[in-house]
Structure formats: C-alpha cells, structure tokens
Design brief:
The protein has about 130 residues and is mainly beta. It has strands at about 1-5, 10-15, 20-25, 35-40, 45-50, 60, 70-75, 80-85, 90-100, 115, 120-125. Strands 2, 4, 5, 6, 9, 10 and 11 form a seven-stranded mixed beta sheet that branches. Strands 1-3-8-7 form a four-stranded antiparallel beta sheet, with no helix packed on it. It is globular, with a radius of gyration of 13 Å.
Length: about 130
C-alpha cells in the first residue's frame, strides 16, 4: 500500500504560480511512476504530467509544457508540481497518483495508476 498526501493548493491571481507537493508513505519502494492529474468542475480527470521515480524522466500534456514542472525528491519521498503563468482555466482539484507496476513508460490514463491522493484545490482568479 502507498499513501499519498497532497498540499500546496490555494487561491492565486492569473499569471501567478504555486508549488504543489505530494508526500508518499508506505511501500514507496514499489513506485514506478508518480503522476499529476486535475479535474475541473463538471469535467473528467485529465492527465497533467508524470515522472519516472527512479531516473526522473518526465512527460507533460502539451497544454502545460513549458509552464508546469514536475520533479521529485527521492530522499523525502515527495513529488512536486510547479505551476506557473496560471489562467482561470487551470482552476481544478489537482491529484497526485502512484503507479506500482511495470508497463507504459509514461502512463497518461488514470486507470494505469494504483493509488491516489485526496486532491488539493487550485483556484485562479482573473
């Protein structure tokens, strides 16, 4: 079992930045990928970014590339999502997820992840 705890969300003005954190606990040695997803009101949960836990390789959905940065601190068992140049369209609940099985190098489907955090709300005001 892996437990995930997100933090760092909040209210920010358009053009601003936030850093989201996701602390993993439990069987962290079983993690292959950590990912970030977001879900806006009335919409599906969408892929944002993923990182390979061992080597730090990353992949982003095209709409956030260059503005969002995913990173991890293995010693702290924590993954981060730096989100910048925010627009109101980024308003959503942001979730982190852990994948604990081999498979797609850059998993982008929610069903590929095994564990999920509770989410952290990001609200961008215009």
């Amino acid at each position: 079992q892996v437990q995930l705890d997100e933090s760092g969300g909040g209210l920010v003005q358009a053009g601003g930045s936030l850093r989201l954190s996701c602390a993993a606990s439990g069987r962290t040695s079983s993690i292959y990928n950590m990912g970030w997803f977001r879900q806006a009101p009335g919409k599906e949960r969408d892929f944002v970014a993923t990182i390979i836990w061992n080597d730090g390789s990353t992949y982003y959905t095209p709409s956030v590339k260059g503005r969002f940065t995913i990173s991890r601190d293995k010693a702290r068992n924590t993954v981060y999502l730096q989100i910048s140049s925010l627009t109101p369209e980024a308003t959503a609940v942001y979730y982190c997820a852990a994948k604990t099985s081999r498979g797609n190098r850059y998993p982008m489907a929610a069903r590929e992840y095994d564990y999920w955090g509770h989410g952290t709300q990001v609200t961008v005001s215009s």
